[in-house]
Amino acid sequence: MAVDEVAQDNPLQAVVLCDVFTQRFAPLTLDRPRCLMPVCNVPLIEWTLESLAAAGVHEVFFLATWHVPQIRAYLEKHHPQLFRAPGSRAPAVRATSLTRISLIAVPEARSVGDTMRELDAHQVIKSDFVLMHGDSLGTMDIGAVVRAHKERRQADRNAIMTICTMPAPPSSEAKRPGDLSVFVLTPTTSQLMHYAAVPAVPRVSLLPLPLELFEQARTELDVRNDLVDCGVDICSIDVPPLFTENFDYQSLRREFVQGILTSDLLEAKIFVHVAPPGDATSTSAGEPFSVVSRGVLGMPPYGAGYMLRVSDPARYDAASRDVLAGWTYPNTPRLGMPDGAKYTSAPGPRYIGEQVTMASTALLGRRSLLGAHARLHEGAQVHDSVLGESVNIGADSIIRNSYLWRGVVVGRHCCIEQCILGEGVQILDHVHLQRGTVVGDGCVIGPNVKLAPSTRVSMHAFRASEDDEEERTEGAEEDSALGQASRGYMWPPLGATPAADGDESDDEEVDELEHAANARLFAMGADRSVVVWDDAVSELSSIDADSDADVLSDDESDESDESSPTSPSAYGSMSLTLSGGHESQTYGEKLESEERLREFQHEAQASLERAFEEKHAPENAAIELKTLRMASNVPPGEVRKVVITFVLHHCSVDQPRETAALLDHWGPLIREVAHDDQIEALAVMQSFCAVHLSHTKLFVPLLTKVYNDEIVSDEAILAWWRHPSSRQLVLESQSPSQAQQVVLELRKRAEPVLRHILEDSEDEDEDEE
Fold first, then answer.
1. Which residues pair with 372 in a beta bridge?
2. pLDDT digits (tens, 9 = 90+) for 268-308
3. Quick one: which of 154, 223, 272, 475 is 20 to 30 A from 166 by CA?
C-alpha cells in the first residue's frame, strides 16, 4: 500500500536517450534515428514505450539531438493522445499507465553527458526516474527494480543509482568481444565497488583493482564478467545535477559511474540489479533488497526478464533472434507485438503476416518472419531472416540470416547473406551480398555484381568525419562497382577507417571501444578469430579481503607511472585474471542453493509425473516448470536436465513406436527448455545414454529425431560436435570412467548424422550458386 501511495504522490517518470553518439549503424542512421529502426518490424521506440508502460511509468521524456522532426512526426502520428494532449489518459500501448510523452530537443549535445546536463537545465524531473537508452529492447520487470531502488533509498539516501544487468553465458551472442564490462560487487548488497569496460583489442587479461576496495568492503567481492548491460538505470533526482557539476562526465558508464566510484568528496553509492533467470551466484542475483538487507534467503526473485541494447548490427541480429525465440514474452510474434501486428505461426518457428503471397515452390525456412504484404516468387527461399512489410523476393533468390526493411525489392537469382537492407532498397538481378553488408535507405545495387563482405552502401557520400565537407573525388569509380544501374555510394567497411584517421591532437583521445580494432567486431557475421581468448586462464571471481599480503608487490609499483589511472601505483598490484565468467558463491549461499536445487528436483519430478499420467499439454507442463524454477531460483540448466532425463527414462529401444509417439508429444517441451542452450541439451542426452547402457542404442535415432523435428537446430548439432561437452560426461554416474568411454563412442556413432547435415548444407550452397 505504501508503494502505491508513493506512486500516486510522485508519478513515475522516465527519460529516454535517443542518441548514443556512435556511428555503428551508419549509414542506416543517416536518414532515421536509431530509436525508429525496426526490430522484427517494430520500431525500437514502440519496444521502449511498451517496457515503460508495463513498469508503471506515467510520463516519458525523449531527449534527442538528431532527427528531431522525424521523432516528433512519429509520435504525433502514432501516439497523438499522449503527445499532443498531455492530460489525456487514452492508451496508445496495451498498458494504460502512460499519460504523457514529451520530446526535448538538445541540438547542441555531443555526448550523453551533454544530454544529461540539458535534462538538468529543463528541471522536469520531480523524483526518482527510469533512465533508458532508446535502443534497449525487452520485457524486464523494470517496475520491480524501481520498487527495490526506492526501498533501498529509504534505508540509505546515498544510493543514487541502480544499474540493470542480465547474466549471459559465454556462448551468448548478447555477450561478445568488443564491448564487455566487468562489475565488482559486494555479494550481500549488490553495491557496485568497481567498474571496467573491456575492449577486445588490445586484449585485457588482467584487471587492476584499487587496494581501497578491500579496505572499504572488508569482505568478499563478486567479480562478474558474465553480465550484459541492459541500458536501463533507476536514478535518483540527484543524478542530473551531478552531470552539471562535473563537465568531465561525458559517457554514462566509463566516466560518470567511474567518477562516482572514485570520488573522494561524494558519498554516493551505485548498485547493480542482476536479473533472474540465471545462475544466482549471490544474493545480488534476484533477491529483493528488503530480504537481502536482513540476510534472509529463499524469497522469490524480482526484476526478472530479458533486456538487451541494440547497440550495433551484431546485437541487432542477436536481439532479433531472441524475439523470434520468445525471449521477449509476452511480446512475441505468436502472442502479439508491441505495435499490434498479427502473425500466423508455424513450427520452426515461422511467422507469416497478413496478406502474404508465397508461390507454391517458395520456401520459408526456420526462424523467419514475413511482414504483411510480403511476396515470395517461384523458387525463392528465406532462412533465419526477417522481411518487412511489402518486401518482394524475386524468383530463385535466397535470403539467409538477413533483415530486409519495409519495401525492399530483390530481383531474380540473388543471394543475400547476413545483411541489413534499409527501407526501399532495390537489389537487381544476379546480385550477391555477403556477410556484414549494410545498405542504407533507397539505394539500388546491380545487376550482376558481387560485393565484398562488410560492404556499406549509402545514398550519401562517405565522409571521414562530420566536419569533412569536401566532395569526394573517387565517388564515380566506387559507384560503378555497385552495378550499371546502381544508385548510391560505397563506404569502407565498419572499422576499416580507424577513429585515429581524423585530426589527432593531444587534447582529443580516441575512444578505444570505437577504434577500428573493436569496431569491426560490431558488424554482423564479424570474424572473431582476430580476438585471442585463452581458455586455460584461471577462473577467479571472488576475493577475500583477508588474502595473504604477499600477492602485493610494492617494489614494482614504485617503478610505474604514477599519473596513469591504471598503473600499479594507483591500484597496487592486485589483479584478476579474466575468464569466461564462472561465478562463485560463499559457503552459506552454496548450502542454500543446494537445498533449493534438491527441492526443485523433487517438485519438478512430481510435476512431470502428473503431466505424464494425466497427459497434459507440453505448454502447460512448461508453464508449471517455469513457475517452479522461478520460485526456487535455480539455473535454467537444471530444468533442462530434469526434463530431458525424465523423458528419456520413459523411452525404450525395444518399443520404437511407443518411443516415437512419446517424443512426438513431449518434443515441444524439450524444445522449450533447450532453446537457450541447445548444446547443453544435446550433451545431456548424450551423457544420459552413456550412463544408462540400455539407452546407448537410442542415442543416434534420438539425435536424428530431434534434428528432423527441429527440436534443436542443425547449427546446434554441429556446434555440439565441436564443443568439448561432446567429449565429456556431464551427468553423475556410479561408473564415471566407463560412462566417459561410452560418451566418446556415442560421439563417434553420431558421425553419419553430422555428415547428413553437412551434405544438406552443401546442397543448399549449390542451389544458391
1. none
2. 999 999 988 543 322 233 333 333 333 323 345 788 889 99
3. 154
Centroid of chain to Cα 478: 35
| Strand ranges for 301-380 from DSSP E | 307-309, 344-346, 350-352, 357-358, 363-364, 368-370, 375-376
**Proportion of the chain in helix, strand, coil states, percent, rounded to 5:** 40, 20, 45
pLDDT at position 531 is 53
CATH of 2-175+226-313, one of 3.40.47.10, 3.60.15.10, 3.90.550.10, 3.40.350.10: 3.90.550.10
Q: How many CB atoms lie within 10 A of CB 304?
A: 18
The DSSP result for 438-485, as a single string, is: EE-TT-EE-SSEEPPTT-EEESS---SSTT--PPPSSHHHHHHTT-TT
61-114 per-position pLDDT tens digit: 999 999 999 999 999 999 998 985 444 444 444 445 899 999 999 999 999 999
**Are 289 and 272 in contact, with CB atoms under 8 Å apart?**
no
Q: How many CA atoms lie within 13 A of 534 on its CB side?
A: 10
Going from N- to C-terminal start, the domains of the chain cover 2-175+226-313, 342-492, 587-768
User: What gap in Å lies between CA 6 and CA 593, rounded to an integer?
Assistant: 35
Of 500, 537, 533, give the one whose Cα is nearest residue 515: 500
Is residue 661 helix, strand or coil? helix
Report the distance separating Cα 15 and Cα 38, nearest Å: 21
> Is CATH 1.25.40.180 correct for 587-768?
yes
- What is the grid cell recorded at 335? 502472442
- 342-492 CATH pick, 2.160.10.10, 3.40.50.970, 3.30.428.10, 3.20.20.100: 2.160.10.10
Separation between Cα atoms, residue 343 and residue 240, nearest integer Å: 42
Residue 694: CB atoms within 10 A of its CB come to 11
Q: What is the pLDDT of residues 590-639, one digit of tens each?
A: 666 777 788 888 888 888 998 888 888 888 888 888 878 777 777 888 89
Q: Are 717 and 753 in contact (CB under 8 A)?
A: yes
In the block, residue with C-alpha cell 542512421: 29
Cell numbers placing 69: 522532426
pLDDT 10s digits, 12-43: 999 999 998 888 999 999 999 999 999 999 99
Q: Do domains 342-492 and 587-768 have the same CATH topology?
A: no
Question: How would you list the strands of the sheet with 415-417, edge to edge?
Answer: 363-364, 381-383, 398-400, 415-417, 431-433, 449-450
The whole-angstrom separation of Cα 570 and Cα 271 is 24
Q: Distance (Å, rounded) from C-alpha 173 to C-alpha 161?
A: 27
The pLDDT value recorded for residue 9 is: 61
Q: Tell me how far apart the alpha carbons of residues 651 and 645 are, in angstroms, rounded to a whole number.
A: 10
